[in-house]
Design a protein that fits this description.
The relative contact order is 0.07. With about 290 residues, this protein is mainly α. The protein is built from 17 helices and no strands. It has three domains: about 10-50, Orthogonal Bundle (434 Repressor (Amino-terminal Domain)); about 75-135, 434 Repressor (Amino-terminal Domain), CATH 1.10.260; about 140-290, lambda repressor-like DNA-binding domains (434 Repressor (Amino-terminal Domain)). Helix 1 packs across helix 3 and helix 12 (about 155-165) runs parallel beside helix 16. It comes from Streptomyces finlayi. This is Helix-turn-helix domain-containing protein. GO terms for molecular function: DNA binding.
Length: about 290
C-alpha cells in the first residue's frame, strides 16, 4: 500500500476528464497500460514513489489527489521525492538495509546519511529528523503542544507541580504551602485562603516574596515562578522532567530514550532521568489500577 490514500476510481475519473487514455497515462508514469487498468479497478495499488508522477501527469496537486493523514514519515518523504528504496540507497552509496530499517522504525539513520538524504528528498535536515521520529512512532512536538503543556499562571504552576512533582509521597496541603511561604519570608505574607485563591485562579498576581516562598515550598528553582518562566528553556525542561518522573510513578513510563534538543529534553537531562528511573522503579510503592 502507498503511504498516501489511493482511490483508483478517482484517478480514472480525473484521467477521463483530461481526455487521457490509460496507455498515455502509463507512458507518463513509466508503467504498462494493464498496470494502470489494475490500479483504477482496485485490483492493485501503485508504489508510493509513483504517486507524484501520476499526479503530475493528471495536472493535479499531490495532496489533493492523494491525501495523507498526520505528519510525514520517512517513507512519505522518499515517495514524494519519487524515489524507490533502492534509488535512495544508491544516493547514499549503501545497500537498501539502512533506508528500510529507518522507515520501518528498526534502526535510525547514521548521521552521515542525514544531509544527503534530506537534499535528495527536498527537505531540511530538521524536517528529515522529524519524519524519522514519526517512523519510530514519536509524534513531533508543535508550538501548540508547548503552549498546552507549559503552565503559565502562578496557579497553573502550583497545580502542575502538585500533580507531577511528588513521586511516591503526599503533596503538601494549601496550609503547609502557606506555612513554608511565611517561614521563608519571615513575615505573614499569605494565608491558606490566599494559596487556594492562587491555585484556583481567583488571584493571579503575587509579590516576589510570595513567589520565592512558593518555590521553596514546592522545592523548585525560584526562576520557575517568574513571569517569563514559560518561555525559559531551562524552566520548561525542568517542568517536563517533573512530569516524566511523575509518569514513572503512575506506570506510564518505564524507560526513556534521549530525544536531544528537538523540542524535548536535552540528552543531559534525559541521562539524569534514566539514572533516576532505575532507582525509582525499585523504591516506589505500587499504585492501584485506576489511579
Amino acid at each position: 500500500m502507498p503511504p498516501r490514500q489511493f482511490d483508483g476510481s478517482r484517478v480514472r475519473a480525473v484521467r477521463r476528464g483530461k481526455d487521457l487514455g490509460q496507455k498515455e497515462l502509463a507512458a507518463e508514469v513509466g508503467v504498462s497500460g494493464p498496470t494502470v487498468a489494475r490500479w483504477e479497478s482496485g485490483q492493485d495499488f501503485p508504489k508510493g514513489e509513483k504517486l507524484p508522477a501520476i499526479a503530475a501527469a493528471l495536472s493535479q496537486p499531490l495532496d489533493a489527489l492523494f491525501p495523507h493523514d498526520g505528519p510525514p514519515d520517512l517513507q512519505l518523504l522518499r515517495c514524494d521525492a519519487g524515489l524507490s528504496v533502492a534509488q535512495a540507497a544508491a544516493i547514499l552509496g549503501t545497500s537498501r538495509v539502512p533506508v528500510s530499517n529507518a522507515e520501518s522504525g528498526r534502526r535510525r539513520l547514521s548521521d552521515a546519511y542525514v544531509q544527503p538524504l534530506a537534499e535528495a528528498y527536498g527537505v531540511t535536515e530538521a524536517e528529515l529528523l522529524a519524519a524519522q521520529d514519526c517512523s519510530f512512532g514519536l509524534r513531533p512536538r508543535t508550538s501548540r503542544d508547548d503552549q498546552a503543556s507549559a503552565p503559565r499562571t502562578i496557579g497553573e504552576k502550583i497545580n502542575y507541580l502538585l500533580q507531577h512533582g511528588y513521586v511516591g509521597q503526599e503533596a503538601p496541603s494549601d496550609a503547609e504551602i502557606a506555612r513554608v511561604v511565611n517561614d521563608h519570608a519571615g513575615v505573614t505574607a499569605v494565608t491558606t485562603d490566599d494559596i487556594v485563591d492562587l491555585r484556583t485562579g481567583v488571584t493571579t498576581e503575587a509579590s516576589d516574596v510570595v513567589r520565592a516562598g512558593l518555590a521553596e515550598a514546592l522545592q523548585v528553582d525560584a526562576a520557575l515562578f517568574q513571569d517569563d518562566a514559560e518561555v525559559n528553556p531551562a524552566a520548561r525542561e525542568l517542568l517536563e522532567a517533573i512530569r516524566f518522573l511523575g509518569s514513572i510513578h503512575r506506570g506510564q513510563i518505564l524507560g526513556l530514550a534521549a530525544r536531544g534538543n528537538s523540542g524535548g529534553l536535552s540528552a543531559e537531562m534525559m541521562a539524569t532521568i534514566n539514572d533516576l528511573v532505575g532507582e525509582l522503579k525499585h523504591k516506589l510503592p505500587e499504585v492501584p489500577d485506576g489511579e
